[in-house]
């Protein structure tokens, strides 16, 4: 019984080490690869648009797609109203944190109403 328990512990340690490597290697390889190379200016310019486009994709998916990935224009009225509120708040405050908090509160309050 003690040998079986010892084998389980070794197995778990090996799994933890492999999982740590699987998480670390994809993060380290770009640093290793790009630390000795000069990144072209066009690539840096292009990369400025990636966060905005990813955020827009997530927002559109959350507002206009159902759980079964069907497009709906008016399926989630509370999310659409909250998105309009967030756009207005973001335009006037230029603050991401205030916009996110306002959006969360708006969705929460509007989901109680709908």
TrEMBL record:
Annotated transmembrane regions: 9-29, 49-69, 81-110
Domain of life of the native organism: Bacteria
Keywords, in A-Z order: Membrane, Transmembrane, Transmembrane helix
Protein name per its UniProtKB record: AzlD domain-containing protein
